[in-house]
Write a structure and sequence with these properties.
The protein starts with 39 loop residues before the first strand and ends in a 5-residue tail after the last strand. The protein is α+β, with helices and mostly antiparallel strands.
Length: 267
């Protein structure tokens, strides 16, 4: 049984990375896209303060976009930490990623950490970045993102699901109301005004989640139609559970998860 361990923070200047290295295999499913599974969950402050230890490692970071620099680049910074150093993110996924219109909607980026040298980045990824635009970022830490996903709150999805249907998402929340090994809800702060979000784990779950754990879930949002979900994912729900979920969630949003792993967002 795998117990998920939350990332803990230590004091600035003497940060010891509490890294959760995941031994999760890829789930078998029929989703067209999925956010990458991270080797290491980090914050922007950890990337800035521990660059040398993280160089070459694939990390996942969840934060709010700060500034769009170009079609393939933007910076992120942790709002929780005063004067946090922005970290440059380079989209090397080969797919267009549109930053959220709401500046408070975080994104998730997964990719290796490296020191930004524009000549090397342009050579390795053929992005054609303008040298003059990135002078201040030269030799600074950057994440070369192989995967990018919107990371809204559960309540944003339950309040305005049509904005997110069919999109690859990375959602953080507290596990609540576990129904089966393959279904639970993510708790939403009632002050936000939304409802809890139903999560269904596609394929065979690769670990056990417990109530109260704070996790990040990647997957695709869709309307809850029990017949379609049963047919596509072979969930093997008994009739009683089917009727209960249908009564509660019919045509409401459900996040069909490809992966569930520890959240790096500080509590």
């Amino acid at each position: 049984m795998i117990n998920f361990i939350k990332t803990k923070r230590s004091s600035k200047g003497a940060i010891a990375l509490a890294i959760s290295t995941l031994l999760l295999g890829a789930c078998t499913n029929n989703l067209d896209q999925q956010a990458a599974v991270p080797e290491t969950n980090v914050t922007t402050e950890e990337v800035a303060d521990n660059t040398n230890q993280l160089i070459g490692k694939t990390v996942t970071i969840r934060s709010t976009p700060v500034t769009k620099l170009g079609p393939s680049t933007f910076t992120i910074a942790d709002k929780q930490f005063f004067n946090a150093q922005p970290i440059l993110v380079v989209n090397a996924s080969g797919k267009t990623f549109v930053l959220p219109t709401d500046p408070n909607t975080p994104i998730q980026a997964t990719g290796p950490v490296r020191k930004f040298v524009i000549a090397d980045i342009n050579r390795d990824y053929n992005l054609g970045l303008d040298v003059n635009l990135y002078k201040e970022y030269e030799t600074q830490p950057a994440i070369i993102a192989q995967s990018l996903a919107l990371a809204p709150k559960p309540g944003e999805l339950t309040t305005n699901p049509k904005l997110y249907y069919g999109k690859t998402l990375a959602v953080t929340g507290e596990v609540e109301n576990i129904r089966t090994a393959s279904s639970f809800t993510l708790d939403e702060d009632k002050l936000f005004g939304g409802q809890d979000l139903l999560v269904i784990r596609a394929g065979t779950p690769k670990g056990v989640v417990n109530e109260g754990e704070k996790v990040a879930v990647t997957g695709v949002l869709r309307p809850f139609v029990v017949a379609e979900l049963e047919r596509e994912y072979d969930l093997q729900w008994d009739l009683t559970l089917q009727k209960q979920l249908e009564a509660e969630y019919s045509n409401k949003p459900v996040l069909v998860a490809t992966e569930v792993y520890p959240s790096a967002i500080p509590e």
